[in-house]
Write a structure and sequence with these properties.
The chain is an alpha+beta fold and about 100 residues long. The protein contains 4 helices and 2 strands. Helix 3 links the parallel strand 1 and strand 2.
Amino acid sequence: MLAALRAGVIVVNTNPLYTPPELEHQLQDSGAEAIVILENFVHVLQKVIARTKIRVVIVTAVGDMLRLPKSWVVNFVVRHVRKQVPPVEHCRGAQIRNRAS
């Protein structure tokens, strides 16, 4: 978030538990053109993205900011053991990786 502010963009925080109509309202009201979203909530964004100005979608996972191999383990558990990532039909987002480690 600090990097975004330093780059001069406006940051709008949103609640990840919003329903599709609530998320759509916030994205339309803010005029957002890009979104960074956890893969756990992409299914909600998918339902409303066509009715918003969003052009850039960056998808990240829960374990992406952890060091290897912990990030692999956390992402595996979230996706396959706890099944917290619903399947999505089409997602062209980039994944954020921690390059400092």
